[in-house]
């Protein structure tokens, strides 16, 4: 894993505002994400999850406020420490799975040929696409594309990984495999920031931010959020609805 | 040239090579157009005179089209955004695309040129290699222009609109149909700021008058300046931050 030499929070967002034209997406949004955990951004479509991730990787520029990713402003200088899996699979349709992953390995400066091949093989096997490695991306199913896209994002073994809806289109078995791998990554010290709208993903995260209309309405671990509802058998879905019902204030339940 | 530039260029080449239908179209379509030119101009002396300008215009047209659409597709598929989130610089990205597409623009140029010379029997007087170098220069300009305008377009429909806006005026004003010197003064002024005018002037001087690249230094210089200028503009326009 490339060394980030940074021990502070993985992400610091301070009073960030962003709008697409006149449509405000984030308004004085603040959030701090510690390193070495899996952090879920949970909310319905339009909550601002993808916009926040695009701001954090430097694809969008905030109109106001500050963003620090691994202690620095998002820029190509720290991009080698970051893995980014966009919502769309974003693969080169004509290239095979192995060519796609190999391309990103080269782009992320895996210069040693033997090491690069080993790593490319490792991640393709991890996402269970080794048998399909020579298939063009255009001939893959939706779930396979998603897996190939993840392989491209993790091939350089980044210490900070942004995954935008990574489990969409995956069958339950593969979803479990993905989460086993994500958990293993956080144990190795990596930070994972995952956007999702499914409670199944949320339950796997160490910490969660419930998002709605560009705001954090609750922040805490899955257990803390469930307990905050006061119901013994509350699910995360119940917890989400509870925070919406109770005003949706920016609330750290810890 | 950085390793990232070469990696991007080789990826583009791999991509197009794996898309056999596109490769066939890249070769066949210019040949069909060139054949139409050949059969529609019955007088050999007229064909000899018009062929260099037609060649230059076709190189510009196909280079612009190939690059513009391909680059735009990268954006609409999200692959360019993914690349922008990686450690590569904007210049690496633009340089990589330029190199990758240039190979196919050169391929089209060679196919067209040799078809004109050996199949349509168009006469030429200059050095073959100097003519080819100049054609490649037009190809570089076309690729740079295609990349630049695809950055400005938000979708394929807008990109297609750039063809009549950017290419057609150059076809009319470059001297292909009528000498620039005989156009109204304001059109001459316009023609003199368009790169294709220099492309046509240069290629005619090389093929019809047997001049060399040094003799047409002004045309070479203007086309090179256009290519470098567009390359820099594209890198500047292609912002990592899009908000």
**Average predicted local confidence, pLDDT of chain B:** 88
Major sheet characteristics of chain B: none
- Span between termini of chain A: 31 Å
**Number of folding domains of chain B?**
1
- Structural class per helix/strand content of chain A? alpha/beta
- Structural shape of chain A: globular
What is the CA-based Rg of chain B, rounded? 18 Å
Helix fraction of chain A by DSSP (H/I, runs of at least 4): 25-40%
CATH class of one domain in chain A: Alpha Beta
Tally the helices of chain B: 10
How many strand units of chain A? 9
Q: Uncertain spans of chain B, ≥5 residues at pLDDT below 50?
A: none
Which protein chains make the most extensive interface, counting residues with beta carbons within 8 Å of the other chain's beta carbons?
A: A-B, 37 and 26 residues
> Can you count the beta strands of chain B?
0
Tally of DSSP helical segments of chain A: 8
Low-confidence residue ranges of chain A: none
**Overall pLDDT metric of chain A:** 89
- Please identify, by name, the CATH architecture of one domain in chain A: 3-Layer(aba) Sandwich
General shape of chain B: globular
CATH overall fold name of one domain in chain A? Rossmann fold
Task: Classify the beta-strand content of chain A into a percent band.
Answer: 15-25%
Characterization of the model:
- The complex is a heterodimer of chains A (254) and B (243).
- Chain A has 254 residues and is an alpha/beta fold.
- Chain A has a domain at 11-91 and 160-245: Rossmann fold.
- Chain A has 8 helices and 9 strands.
- Chain A has helices spanning 49-56, 97-107, 113-126, 142-154, 172-187, 199-204, 222-227, 236-245, and strands spanning 11-20, 23-33, 38-42, 64-69, 82-85, 160-164, 191-196, 207-212, 215-220.
- Chain A has a 6-stranded mixed beta sheet, sandwiched between helices. Chain A has a 3-stranded antiparallel beta sheet with strand order 2-1-4, with helices on one face.
- Chain A is globular, with a radius of gyration of 18 Å.
- The mean pLDDT of chain A is 89.
- Chain B is mainly α and 243 residues long.
- Chain B has one domain.
- The longest helix of chain B has 33 residues, at 44-76.
- Chain B is globular, with a radius of gyration of 18 Å.
- Chains A and B meet through helix 2 of A and helix 1 and helix 4 of B.
């Amino acid at each position: 894993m490339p060394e980030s030499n940074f021990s502070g929070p993985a992400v610091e967002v301070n009073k960030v505002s962003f709008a697409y034209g006149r449509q405000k997406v984030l308004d004085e949004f603040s959030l701090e994400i510690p390193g070495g955990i899996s952090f879920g951004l949970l909310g319905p479509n339009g909550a601002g999850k993808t916009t926040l991730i695009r701001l954090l990787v430097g694809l969008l520029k905030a109109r106001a406020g500050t963003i620090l990713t691994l202690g620095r402003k998002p820029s190509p200088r720290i991009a080698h420490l970051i893995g980014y899996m966009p919502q769309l699979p974003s693969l080169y349709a004509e290239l095979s799975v192995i060519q796609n992953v190999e391309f990103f390995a080269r782009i992320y400066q895996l210069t040693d040929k033997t090491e690069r091949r080993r790593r490319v093989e490792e991640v393709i096997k991890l996402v269970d696409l080794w048998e399909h490695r020579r298939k063009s991306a255009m001939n893959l199913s939706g779930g396979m594309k998603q897996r190939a896209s993840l392989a491209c994002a993790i091939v350089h073994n980044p210490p900070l990984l942004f995954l935008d809806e990574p489990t969409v289109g995956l069958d339950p078995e593969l979803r479990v495999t993905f989460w086993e791998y994500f958990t293993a990554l956080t144990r190795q010290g990596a930070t994972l920031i995952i956007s999702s709208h499914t409670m199944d993903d949320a339950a796997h995260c160490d910490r969660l931010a419930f998002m709605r209309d560009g705001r954090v309405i609750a922040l805490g671990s899955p257990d803390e959020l469930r307990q905050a509802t006061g119901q013994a058998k509350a699910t995360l879905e119940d917890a989400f609805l509870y925070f919406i019902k109770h005003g949706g204030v920016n609330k750290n339940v810890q | 040239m950085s390793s990232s530039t070469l990696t991007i260029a080789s990826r583009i080449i791999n991509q197009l090579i794996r898309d056999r239908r596109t490769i066939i179209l890249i070769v066949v379509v210019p040949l069909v157009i060139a054949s139409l030119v050949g059969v529609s101009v019955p007088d050999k002396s007229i064909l000899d005179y018009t062929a260099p300008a037609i060649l230059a215009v076709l190189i510009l047209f196909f280079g612009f089209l190939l690059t513009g659409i391909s680059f735009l597709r990268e954006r609409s598929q999200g692959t360019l955004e993914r690349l922008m989130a990686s450690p590569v610089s904007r210049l690496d990205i633009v340089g990589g695309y330029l190199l990758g597409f240039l190979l196919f623009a050169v391929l089209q140029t060679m196919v067209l040129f040799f078809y004109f010379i050996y199949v349509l029997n168009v006469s030429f007087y200059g050095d073959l290699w100097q003519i080819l170098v100049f054609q490649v220069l037009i190809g570089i300009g076309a690729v740079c222009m295609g990349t630049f305008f695809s950055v400005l377009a938000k979708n394929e429909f807008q990109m297609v609109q750039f063809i009549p806006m950017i290419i057609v005026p150059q076809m009319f004003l470059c001297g292909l149909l009528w000498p620039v010197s005989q156009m109204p003064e304001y059109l001459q002024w316009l023609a003199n700021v368009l790169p294709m005018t220099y492309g046509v002037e240069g290629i005619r001087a090389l093929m019809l008058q047997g001049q060399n690249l040094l003799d047409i230094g002004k045309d070479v210089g203007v086309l090179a300046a256009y290519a470098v200028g567009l390359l820099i503009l594209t890198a500047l326009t292609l912002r990592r931050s899009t908000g």
